[in-house]
Design a protein that fits this description.
By secondary structure, the protein is of the alpha/beta class. The chain is 57% helix and 10% strand. Helix 4 runs antiparallel to helix 10, helix 6 packs across helix 8 and helix 16 crosses helix 21. It is globular. It starts with 8 loop residues before the first helix and ends with a helix.
Length: 499
């Protein structure tokens, strides 16, 4: 009863392909998912035992579930219905836009990617480029925060390295979720950022539907207890100064906040500074509205930088790029901040039953909260060797300093800051060594000139020197304003005061 059945070769290959596809979809892929999910769950269990802030269940929810929850949020549906009537557009078309926006925004957090691949890459990269230091962190205060607290890390924005540096230093405390600009929406960076829990923001979008979807996601993440990292300045500092806050994301987080509810929002100020910012010249060009350098120029500059760094390494004269330092400030509870404002009003004669109205009014004016938080960020900005040296040099740009004069002048600035309560990072605890570090980095870049043992500013590079001096220009005024309960004024005010 046996017989040979002959099939065309293309039909046999098609059958083998179908079998292979079936095995892949029903055996291999599910097995791989099970294996990776098991590893991720074990990793999360270990991490939650040692992290100051546990990984919330919201971050571990499947992405498609979050996209569905966001797309059908009642506030979004209400806006869709209104826009459909106003613009005479099909409701299905607007809901399709909502779905696209939700998929664009919602991340796909992967603990294995974040704490294994990304952490190790960030650690190697920042240590290859900088001498990394954690200036100050109140870990005990973080550990005292309960699961009902939604933590938001607010950082000044000096460099695109901020993402990598903060991820590395915060990984021992929590998993941060970043708001990232559209510049990062390129393959494969886009996929990596999503896997690390980051979400993308169209900074200047005027579409009310997109803004509503973004607002609902930010509030949904805050209610889910996701530790978020936000740059309130909204963009990189163009001139090195600390800028005023832009109120978009802060406004979303605090809108509809219930001071009497169970959940609190806790803000952690974070100060970041570098002895060298790789984008400094490009940022200064942008500040002056000058055309950006061509791609050829950028490539040539990159090749020259790599070649020069390699040559310095061969001669054992490579000193990396100085220090990168991060300070984590004291947590600020939104509930406590609102209570303080109500208490101050009560002392001036307001009656007790008006407290809720006062708190609502304080929340509606989110700029007051943003100003206070920017003051706190400014107060903990790390003071590094290059910032100290450039502050002295730019104050007297035509003066020629010998080695001892420069040390004395920098020491006077250091004592001024420390008397005001600011933390100055001195490598090895030695002011002379700190001056030598700052001086060496600036000389290697041609920002300082040395002749007959005397140091002076390079007139052609004075703008770059000022960029680094500006990173601490606000500090003499921040402490007094915080003590008076004042708000953060504009960059122009600080610049005027510094002059």
């Amino acid at each position: 009863m046996s017989a040979t059945v002959q099939l065309p070769w293309w039909l046999a290959m098609l059958a083998l392909g179908i079998c292979a596809l079936w095995l892949l979809q029903n055996l291999l892929v599910p097995s791989a998912r099970w294996f990776l999910r098991r590893r991720a769950n074990r990793l999360i269990e270990r991490l939650n035992q040692r992290l100051a802030l546990r990984i919330p269940g919201f971050k571990l929810t499947r992405r498609e579930v979050l996209v569905d929850r966001l797309s059908f949020d009642p506030r979004i549906i209400e806006l869709v219905d209104r826009l459909s009537a106003e613009r005479d557009l099909p409701r299905e078309q607007l809901m399709g836009d909502v779905r696209d926006y939700a998929r664009e925004i919602v991340p796909a957090f992967n603990a294995l990617v974040y704490f294994n691949s990304a952490y190790r890459l960030a650690r190697r990269l920042v240590h290859a480029l900088y001498r990394v230091r954690l200036g100050y962190a109140d870990d005990a205060a973080l550990e005292r925060l309960g699961p009902e607290s939604s933590v938001v890390f607010l950082m000044n924005h000096r460099s695109n390295m901020d993402y990598i540096l903060a991820t590395y230093l915060a990984a021992e405390r929590t998993a941060l979720s970043y708001a990232v600009g559209e510049w990062a929406r390129v393959w494969p960076l886009q996929q990596l950022i999503r896997a690390m829990g980051g979400y993308f923001v169209r900074r200047d979008s005027g579409d009310p539907l997109y803004r509503r979807v973004l607002e609902c996601y930010v509030q949904m993440a805050a209610e889910g207890g996701v530790p978020q990292a936000v740059f309130p300045e909204g963009r990189l500092s163009r001139d090195g100064r600390l800028g005023p806050a832009r109120l978009g994301l802060l406004g979303y987080m605090t809108r509809n906040f219930d001071p009497a509810g169970e959940r609190d929002i806790v803000f952690i100020p974070v100060g970041i500074n570098y002895d060298r910012v790789f984008e400094d010249r490009s940022l200064l060009l942008d500040a002056r509205k000058l055309p950006r350098r061509s791609l050829g120029f950028k490539l040539r500059t990159t090749v020259e930088f790599v070649a020069r760094t390699s040559w310095q390494a061969l001669l054992r004269r490579r000193y990396r790029n100085g220090y990168a330092c991060v300070n984590f400030g004291e947590p600020v509870s939104l509930k406590a901040w609102l209570r303080d404002r109500v208490d101050q009003s009560s002392e001036s004669g307001a009656v007790r039953d008006e407290q809720l109205d006062q708190q609502a009014a304080a929340l509606s004016d989110v700029s007051r909260l943003a100003d206070n938080l920017m003051l706190r960020i400014g107060a903990i900005t790390p003071i590094l060797p290059v910032a100290l040296v450039t502050r002295v040099i730019t104050a007297e740009p035509e003066r020629h300093f010998d080695a001892s004069e420069l040390v004395v002048a920098v020491k006077a600035v250091q004592e001024e800051f420390e008397a005001a309560g600011h933390r100055v990072y001195l490598p090895r605890g030695d002011i002379a060594y700190a001056v030598d570090v700052g001086k060496r980095l600036l000389r290697l870049r041609g920002l300082l000139l040395e002749k007959d043992g005397a140091i002076t500013a390079n007139p052609a590079e004075f703008e770059v020197l000022s960029y680094y001096a500006n990173s601490i220009a606000h500090l003499p005024y921040v402490e007094n304003r915080l003590e008076r309960g004042a708000d953060f004024d504009t960059v122009e005010h600080i610049a005027h005061a510094d002059a």
